[in-house]
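step: validate -> pass
step: tokenize input -> pass
step: predict -> running
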Amino acid sequence: MSSQDIPEENVPAERATDEDAHGQGAVAVADETNPFADPGLPPHEHRIQDIDERAAKRSERVVAFLFTLSMLATVAFIASYVAIPVDKSIYVFPIGHISALNFALGLTLGTALFSIGAGAVHWARTLMSDVEIADERHAISAEPEVRAKVLDDFRQGAKESALGRRKLIRNTMFGALALFPLSGVILLRDLGPLPGTKLRHTIWSKGKLLVNVNTNEPLRPSDIAVGSLTFVKPEGLEEDDEDFQAQIAKAATMIVRLQPDNIKDKQELEWSYQGIVAYSKICTHVGCPISLYEQQTHHVLCPCHQSTFDLSDGARVIFGPAGHPLPQLRIGVNDEGYLEALGDFEEPVGPAFWERG
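step: predict -> pass
step: emit ->
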């Protein structure tokens, strides 16, 4: 039912006089003396809630229901966080199997936020006043007398403070104000430990043996056949170590034996041993583990996005989205004839690193 269908006598008196009070519906006619007359505001149309108290009560109940739903959803959010195991999964059509905890938290939190917003919007659109009010723009600047008094008071205060004459007070005050914000900066320390230089280095170091990942045994040059691909880890790194995953993510290495005559890059040849070259296994695109090797072309391929590297030419990128070659590990043999590292990788391993600028 629109406001036009309601008899005029049913309109409350205070509502009926709103138009007169705020100039609603007043129209100025343009003439020769005033070609740009103010047309005024359009006539105000009453909503059904302004006229029918029963409709207003219904809107009030809807708003209260939405706010109550938000409260229940918040309680459900807390209960879900406490009661649902982290590793529990459920099937949701058409998404498939997902984490039950994530689904419950997202659903309850979304319902709580949506209900608050929907309730506030419904309240504003149906129950709050919607009468448009025009107010004439007034001058922003203060009166000349007020401005003169403010300036006089400021000058008097500056004179009485003796800030220009008391240089010791002035300088120490500026120092205190400059140093105080550092207190807030120091609090950022609690966001976590500083990374230091651990992103630039791995646990490879001079003298660490190259240990076969599958057999957990150190390797001799005779164990590596020409054209073979072997994955190795640093000596002393065990799977039951607490930080094994974090360390192997940077230290994972592959070794391939080439004919020395097939190695094109001079540094690669110097850093190899009898044609055995060691390179990082971590792709320089997004960090996937490289696992495919072509014996005839000496190319290694990342299975994620097909970045291809030429191990006979400094592991340079010959195809795919990777931005730079694989870092090489300089190797040699110790007195017992085992392959060992002669240092760490030449540069940080993995995908784009800010040091490469």
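step: describe -> Residues 53-83 form the longest helix (31 residues).
step: cleanup -> pass
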